[in-house]
Amino acid sequence: MYDTIVIRTYTRGRQTVLLSLCKLESEAKLKRFILTSNHTLQCPICREDLTYLHSTSSKHLKANSILHNLFRQEYVKEYDIRQSETENERKNIIKKRLIIGNRHQLLSYDYDYTRHEWTLFIKFENDHQKDVGQFIKQIIVNLHPTFVPSQIILDKPPFRLTRIGWAVFNISLSIEFHAKWNKSDLVTNWFLSFSDADTQKMMEIEFQKSTDNTTNNTVL
Where does the UniProt annotation locate this protein (predicted)? Predict the structure, then answer.
């Protein structure tokens, strides 16, 4: 059930052997073994102290290029497979910059009452092809409770909402993505601005293309 794994390194011309009595199938298992072991880490041949493999402050294994290279040589096939998987995942990642903001126009002004027209917008940067609808299914907008209705659902692009009011407030947003992206809802907020220029914030979102759904590649 258990194998003895012998890892050989060389320090100042001496052979250092680290023995592990658990079956180590990956470098991650070696890390877990070293970090969870209550035994003194010591070379069984030269008795060299190997406690440098521990990091007492962060409880993480310190980087060890020797072990890394040894495992890469020992598990060539596994490393190649994982590298291929990583490259494929990177190719299937779509990065989009989501922009949330509002435009504003002053309608009337007097001492007792001021009327402002504002338009909330949610879009992608450089959205010339208007593909935001391929990613976003709907957006739930929660306004100040004085608005009736105070909750509005935007279910198709362009995702905009225009209202008339007299003061700024915080707008709560819940953005739901299409199921094919397998992505959790994004909950964020936007504080309304009555400045003359358009105000906005930007965030980067990653989407993972499904390898099983070839239609994603043609649409995008």
Answer: Nucleus
